[in-house]
Structures are given as structure tokens and as C-alpha cells.
Amino acid sequence: MNIATRLLALAAAAIMPAMIAGPLRADPTSAFEHRFEAIEGGPMPLSRWRGKVLLVVNTASFCGYTPQYEGLQALWERYQERGLVVIGVPSNDFGEQEPKSEAEILGFCKGAYNVTFPLTAKQRVAGAEAHPFYRWASAALGPAQAPRWNFHKYLVGRDGRLIAGYGSRVAPLSREFVGAIEAALAASP
User: Fold this and answer.
1) Longest Cα separation, the chain
2) Which domains does the chain possess?
3) Which of 9, 45, 82, 133 has its CA 20 to 30 A from that of 125?
């Protein structure tokens, strides 16, 4: 086998898995192009919820905002049937307030707040090593909308596009926030 044939075979072998998995996009345009790992293990592609409204929140168990789990769970229970998916993304990025393992985080969330909405494995959400979803969201909405602390919220429309980012101080059940969720749920995909 000559060198050109070998190089062609190596290139084909390198890109074949990507072709099987689907097209690669250097610049995603939709949240549904991202995937996480579930806290229980296994893949959690956001495409699983295509056509639904996503609320993606970086969380921490030992933060002054941790009681927001209660409001997030209430939103999930109230709007799940209408198409809202709340996704918690545990992160230790801010103040090292999520130092525990995934099993410990899951136990805490279920035990202390009866959380039943999906949780991802622990992720980086800030800086150059942030999960691709967070880098994409920050680029799409601008650096001012990047998470600066725990419980930063991204609202994603049924079409997979970011609607807005909300800082940690915005309570899940605040009038402003609930109004934004209801407007997103009323919009067609």
C-alpha cells in the first residue's frame, strides 16, 4: 500500500465515527446540538427534548442560593406537562460549593428538595474549560450573560435558541421569570 493510500485510509478511519454520530458543527446554532452526561451515568443529549422549552441552571449544594432547588422543582411540576424541561447542572466553579460526588449530589437533591427534574454530571460552567453548552450560551448572549455564580439560568425556546440568561438573584418563582417561561411555552416551535 503506497503512502497516499495509507493516508487516505487513516483519514477515513478518523472521520468515520463522526460521520456515523452525525454532522459536526464548529458553531452550534441550537441548544439541541449539545449533550451532557446524566448524573446517574449515560448520555443526556439535549436533542431528547427537541420542541420543548429548556431551563438550564448551574447548581450547587452549599450555596446561599441552594434553596432555589425548591422553586425549580415547583416550576418542573407546574409546567412539565406544557413542555418545560428543567435541567440542573451541578458545578463546583464558584466558591467550591459543590465538592461532592455525583451520587452524593443526587442524594442531597432528592433528599433535601425532592428533585425529580433531570440533573447532569458535575460540569465546568465558566471559563475556557466550560462545558460546550455554556461556552455556546455565553458567546450567543454575550459575556455579560455568562454565569458569574451558582444558579444562573438559561431559558431556551422550543426552537433550541437561547431566549435569555438570568442571574442567580432571579428567583425561579418570581413574576418576571414565570412570565418569561409562560411566554416561551406559548410560542410555537
Assistant:
1) 69
2) 27-186 (3.40.30.10)
3) 82
